[in-house]
């Protein structure tokens, strides 16, 4: 394709098949070699250099055959673990786990449950919400950063494929000088009246005979009304527009240490007590 650089990994044991990337010539990129001494996997990894004001992105593409063995699966999971340590990862492909229910984070087959463990251990988010082939969700988009992938759309098939095409955007715009977003200003909140407003609600009567979802909506309505009256808002600064208002520097450091400790425990390098 003119104007694009092709990266490819052909299937070695039969004609046809494999995975490929086309990267726009205007983007500086390089191939990454993850687990080259491992079992052969149908996966390919590329580092795309970020433009001014943004970091690099690790992009991976994968095809997992339905009959792939446990050893090759484990090799793939080690590659995913290595790639997920980057600041920004986008992994796409056909993983052939039709029995996974992403809404409940559950699966019937052992191999599918192992894949879910890999996703959870590496703190990945799966953003596809609709079936991509004959009612099954086989094709996935995984990322390690909330808000990195957006505008996900399923379109018609390409050529003779019976899979739907997946289109999405990687949202890596340069930092904005000003933000129009607002957030709750908890430092100026008046929690006395806030507690008083919620304390006046006759909860037993308000929730009587209601199910879990309906009860939640009733509670949420009262909570938001009290919030609107007692907690003022403020303009978000550009440095914190991507973070919740309660996520300060100290919490960020603790979350990072938690992830490192959990990953070390899963790999047998850190004792549970530590």
TrEMBL record:
<dbReference type="InterPro" id="IPR036691">
    <property type="entry name" value="Endo/exonu/phosph_ase_sf"/>
</dbReference>
<feature type="domain" description="Endonuclease/exonuclease/phosphatase">
    <location>
        <begin position="61"/>
        <end position="166"/>
    </location>
</feature>
<dbReference type="InterPro" id="IPR005135">
    <property type="entry name" value="Endo/exonuclease/phosphatase"/>
</dbReference>
<dbReference type="Pfam" id="PF14529">
    <property type="entry name" value="Exo_endo_phos_2"/>
</dbReference>
<protein>
    <recommendedName>
        <fullName>Endonuclease/exonuclease/phosphatase domain-containing protein</fullName>
    </recommendedName>
</protein>
């Amino acid at each position: 394709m003119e104007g694009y650089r092709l990266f490819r990994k052909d299937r070695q044991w039969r004609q046809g098949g494999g995975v490929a990337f086309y990267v726009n010539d205007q983007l500086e990129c390089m191939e990454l070699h993850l687990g080259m001494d491992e079992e052969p996997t149908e996966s390919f990894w590329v580092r795309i250099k970020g433009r001014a004001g943004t970091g690099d992105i690790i992009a991976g593409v994968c095809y997992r055959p339905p009959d792939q063995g446990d050893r090759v699966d484990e090799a793939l999971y080690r590659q995913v673990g290595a790639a997920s340590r980057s600041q920004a990862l986008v992994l796409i492909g056909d993983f052939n786990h039709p029995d996974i229910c992403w809404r409940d984070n559950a699966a019937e087959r052992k191999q599918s449950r192992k894949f879910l463990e890999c996703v959870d251990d590496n703190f990945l988010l799966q953003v596809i919400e609709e079936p991509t082939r004959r009612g099954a969700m086989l094709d996935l988009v995984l990322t390690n950063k909330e808000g990195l992938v957006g505008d996900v759309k399923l379109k018609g098939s390409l050529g003779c494929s019976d899979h739907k095409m997946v289109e999405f955007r990687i949202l890596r715009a340069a930092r904005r000088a000003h933000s129009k977003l607002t957030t709750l200003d908890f430092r100026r909140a008046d929690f006395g009246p806030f507690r008083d407003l919620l304390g006046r609600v006759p909860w037993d009567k308000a929730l009587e005979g209601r199910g879990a979802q309906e009860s939640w909506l009733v509670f949420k309505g009262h909570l938001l009304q009290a919030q609107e009256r007692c907690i003022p808002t403020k303009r978000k600064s550009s440095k914190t527009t991507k973070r919740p208002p309660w996520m300060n520097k100290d919490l960020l450091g603790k979350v990072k240490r938690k992830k490192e400790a959990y990953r070390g425990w899963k790999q047998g390098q850190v004792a549970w007590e530590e």
